[in-house]
Amino acid sequence: MVIITDSAADMSREELAHWRVQCIPTGVIFGDDEYISSDELTEEELWRRSFAGERIRTSQPSPQAFLSVFESVKAAGETAIYIGISSALSGTLQSAKLALSMLDYDGIHIVDSLCGAAAQKLLVLFACRLRDEGRLLAAEAAARIASIRHRIRLYASLDTLDNLARSGRIPKAVAGIGSLARLKPLLEVTQEGRIALAGKAFGRHRAIESLAQRVASMRIDPDHPVIPLYSHARDNCLSLIRKLSERGVSVNEELLSAIGPAIAAHIGPDAYGVTFVEAE
Question: CB of 173 within 8 A of CB of 160?
Fold first, then answer.
């Protein structure tokens, strides 16, 4: 069984190799320069150009990019599961569905993650676990993966909502709350796969406190990891991990997940948060 995802899952090259996951890359565009993979655009280069004032955009993978991978799966007589970024946030999943419609093969299954970033990675890791256990057919595994989507939680704080508003991921009216001095927006990914305002806090310390309190109030499924995530600087995320630890929520710092260009382009620097699967 082949596991496939896209750049929005924020899996490093080492993670992809370790878990044997294929990744369909998202294009990242600065002016006339388009980068297709993290080998071409490093995290350092991303933020250097971003802080220099260059506008960053993304381009979703084409149906042909998916078709090439899907055809190789068919040629090998394999089955596959593709876990993609939320269809409410990107047209990437539509490209995958279009590619699959061109292929006369029923061994490939598409799962809308209804999330992105490290939350999407949680589903990919679950898929790898099901694959390695070897007890389920691809169709059964895809159904199991889809069954936990509604329990995935992602809570984060951003420095500003301007980037999300410019990319159309949230209404401009919502972004206006971030224009007040020191007011830090708290966000969540809804069960419909959209980004929503979960609250607001005055100042970074209160934002971290509020996130930690919210997460600690929930029952976390121990069968899945708690993954902390950040963009650009990790200090705020480390502070959040410490606050969570004080409240009895164990988070492994080694799982710290850098938000890659496909997502960072839309949220900007200095975002941080945590994702996990809520217990039933």
Answer: no
What's the rounded Cα separation, in Å, for the pair 226 and 252? 8
Kindly state the helix (H) or strand (E) to which residue 154 belongs, with its residue range: strand 152-157
Q: What are the pLDDT digits (tens) for 101-145? A: 999 999 999 999 999 999 999 999 999 999 999 999 999 999 999
**Lookup: tokens for 124:** 């990919």
Q: From the CA atom positions of the chain, what is the Rg in Å?
A: 18
Domains, the chain, in order of start with CATH, read 2-26+61-147 (3.40.50.10440), 151-277 (3.30.1180.10)
CA distance 47 to 51: 6
- Give the closest residue to 96 by CA, choosing from 156, 142, 160, 128: 142
Provide the Cα torsion 42, 175, 181, 274; round to 10°: -50
Q: Provide the whole-model pTM.
A: 0.91
